[in-house]
Design brief:
Blueprint (H helix, E strand, L loop, with lengths): L2 H8 L7 E5 L3 H13 L3 E5 L2 H11 L3 E5 L7 H10 L8 E5 L4 H9 L4 E4 L4 H27 L2 E7 L5 E4 L1 H11 L8 H12 L10 E5 L2 E11 L7 E10 L1 H11 L3 H11 L4 H8 L3 H15 L4 H15 L6
Parallel strand pairs: 1-2, 1-3, 3-4, 4-5
Antiparallel strand pairs: 6-7, 6-10, 8-9, 9-10
Helix pairs in contact: 3-4, 9-10, 9-13, 10-12, 10-13, 11-12
Length: 325
């Protein structure tokens, strides 16, 4: 079992945001810990880069306050590794740095930080900066959870390299079932579709949608919005929804008194599939499909595929108006 599930679920996120402070200087930790604790945050601490990566994966904090300069693994490398892992890539990172040169501040933002504060640390400034980013993160989390509850799964994909940065539990299940992939790998067909969408952003109309079929079920993908830097390719929020025609097949069977297998065969005839196609889908030979179809013809009182499909389509439109061929 993944230890991050146990620790993350044990934290009281309903009443308190979780903050991970990463700093190797005890005085800095003490000042920030006390200020955040008094403000109602749940505070976790790490004193090295290695400990920060482990703690972040275990607890999945809502925000990370990260010291830039630490012995061993510095904050820049910690940020890069957090952003490279699908489980932690969504967590906002605020750098704490005494380096005020522009190149260092730019480096902090380039490796994934959303903001920075300069040392010596002023707790009120840190709280103000955190409040801005936590509000956005909290709103996105609530939106994603609500979408999941209504069957709309979401993922975030980084356009530059196609990495899957974030996914809801429902999205994880659907991608594994339809594509056999797990984060941070994004299915190749999804990456190719995203690049096609991005190449057409300057064209009028809605970006094209992607549909993956799995038997009588299909998984649709819709490009929702860009997250982060709008001047670059950026990260993109994609909404997925699974639609199943199982109810349609059952309705066909009941309407024409067909067996489950005969109803499936007629369903795929309506979809325009050949006997060979249907055999491949159902795991049967074309000859077996032909025999099922002959019995369907008898029960419907027709002699051709076209007539059977037309009769079935007419009945489906009455019973399942939302059905799409």
């Amino acid at each position: 079992m993944n230890p991050s599930i146990d620790i993350a679920s044990a934290l009281d996120r309903g009443n308190s945001d979780v903050v991970l402070i990463v700093d190797d200087v005890p005085d800095n930790l003490s000042v920030l810990h006390d200020a955040l604790d008094e403000s109602g945050y749940t505070v976790l601490i790490a004193t090295s880069g290695e400990a920060a990566l482990k703690r972040a994966l275990q607890a999945l904090p809502d925000v990370v306050l990260l010291d830039a300069m630490m012995p061993g693994m510095d904050g820049f490398e910690v940020a890069r590794r957090l952003k490279a892992q699908a489980e932690t890539a969504h967590i906002p990172i605020i750098f704490m740095t005494g380096l005020t040169e522009t190149e260092h501040l730019v480096a902090a933002l380039e490796c994934g930080a959303v903001d920075y504060v300069t040392k010596p640390i002023k707790p009120k400034e840190v709280l103000a900066r955190m409040g801005v980013h936590l509000a956005g993160a909290r709103e996105r989390r609530q939106t994603r959870n609500a979408l999941d509850a209504f069957g709309y799964a979401t993922i975030t994909v980084r356009a530059s390299d196609g990495a899957l940065l974030w996914q809801t539990p429902l999205a994880r299940e659907l991608l594994l079932r339809y594509c056999g992939t797990q984060a941070p790998e994004t299915p190749q067909e999804v990456v190719a579709w995203l690049q096609q969408c991005l190449s057409r952003l300057d064209q009028p109309g809605e970006p094209p949608r992607l549909t993956l079929e799995r038997g009588a079920a299909r998984l649709g993908f819709r490009l929702h919005q860009q997250i982060g830097d709008v001047d670059a390719q950026g990260d993109w929020l994609i909404v997925m929804r699974e639609v199943s025609d199982t109810a349609v097949i059952e309705a066909i069977g009941l309407s024409f008194k067909l067996t489950p297998k005969e109803a499936e065969v007629l369903y795929w005839v309506v979809k325009g599939k050949t006997n060979k196609d249907i055999g491949d889908i159902l795991g049967s030979s074309p000859m077996t499909v032909k025999k099922h179809l002959e019995r369907v013809f008898v029960k419907l009182g027709v002699e051709t595929r076209t007539a059977a499909a037309g009769m079935a389509m007419g009945r489906i439109r009455l019973l399942q108006p939302q059905f799409e061929i």
